């Protein structure tokens, strides 16, 4: 590969820093904790003993209610910053930028679609970090409320409705990709090891479950834009609650809870085995 100068060269230098790599890996730990909390909320919904928001805002609200919740929320925000910056670096340099010296780096790492996925993840991590700060400061609006508010604003114009539909289709596509990535076991390409039986099971179940729920959330956004009904655009929480309306709804919600828990534990493994 050719030497890079300017901004790209500075980003490359940053990704070569061992401390930066360790800090980014810490973000996976936090992501795992949040997924386990979401799984806990979903499970409580499944057994009818809870009505919390089954999404990142619900997980943050659960943290806020614990002893030392204020510090925990700030810890989430701070820990997600390096991972956000790492995803931005991947947007600029391609996936797994710390491996740029390796002779057999996968050409797929440089594809535009993979750079865009890295950018999308950076946006998600940044949004969760910002939400954690807001929760720590006492502003505790749920993700569903924010999604509905954004939908109401966009639906004020035909262009906004079209943009909302595009967003919904994008989320649906991302969810389908996650499910496919899990079912095809392509997530193993992101690991420094081949993956044993337990890690493979966690990766498959976690990616498929999260992908299907995410795809459901995207479909709800598309429906909201078509029907001009912003109340339908309630994100992950709405997708989980919609499962409860289906036949064997409690069973489906329970499976979703298990899947999110699996992804949480898979995220813990990423703190050590993720390709950076």
Automatic annotation (TrEMBL):
Query: What is the protein name for this chain?
Result: Membrane protein
| Membrane-traversing stretches | 28-47, 67-86, 118-137, 162-180, 201-226, 246-266
> One of this protein's Pfam families, by short name?
DUF1206
Its lineage opens with: Bacteria, Bacillati, Actinomycetota, Actinomycetes, Mycobacteriales
Instruction: List the InterPro entries.
Output: DUF1206
Which residues does the UniProt record annotate as the domain DUF1206?
A: 27-92, 119-184, 206-273
Q: Write the record's keywords in alphabetical order, separated by commas.
A: Membrane, Transmembrane, Transmembrane helix
């Amino acid at each position: 590969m050719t030497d890079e100068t300017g901004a790209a060269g500075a980003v490359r230098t940053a990704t070569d820093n061992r401390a930066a790599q360790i800090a980014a890996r810490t973000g996976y730990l936090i992501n795992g904790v949040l997924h386990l909390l979401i799984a806990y909320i979903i499970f409580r919904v499944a057994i009818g003993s809870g009505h919390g928001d089954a999404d990142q805002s619900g997980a943050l609200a659960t943290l806020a209610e614990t002893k030392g919740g204020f510090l925990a929320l700030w810890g989430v925000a701070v820990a997600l910053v390096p991972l956000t910056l790492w995803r931005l670096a991947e947007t600029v340099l391609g996936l797994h930028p710390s491996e740029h010296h390796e002779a057999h780096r996968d050409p797929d790492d440089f594809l535009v679609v993979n750079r865009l996925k890295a950018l999308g993840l950076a946006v998600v991590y940044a949004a969760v970090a910002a939400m954690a700060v807001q929760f720590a400061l006492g502003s505790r609006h749920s993700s569903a409320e924010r999604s509905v508010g954004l939908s109401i604003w966009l639906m004020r114009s035909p262009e906004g409705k079209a943009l909302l539909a595009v967003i919904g289709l994008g989320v649906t596509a991302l969810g389908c990709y996650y499910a496919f990535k899990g079912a095809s076991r392509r997530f193993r390409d992101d690991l420094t090891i081949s993956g044993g039986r337990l890690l493979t099971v966690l990766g498959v179940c976690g990616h498929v479950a999260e992908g299907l729920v995410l795809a459901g959330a995207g479909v709800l956004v598309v429906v909201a834009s078509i029907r001009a009904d912003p109340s339908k655009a309630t994100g992950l929480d709405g997708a989980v609650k919609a499962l409860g309306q289906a036949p064997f709804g409690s069973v489906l919600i329970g499976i979703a809870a298990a899947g999110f828990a699996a992804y949480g534990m898979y995220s813990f493994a990423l703190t050590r085995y993720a390709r950076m």
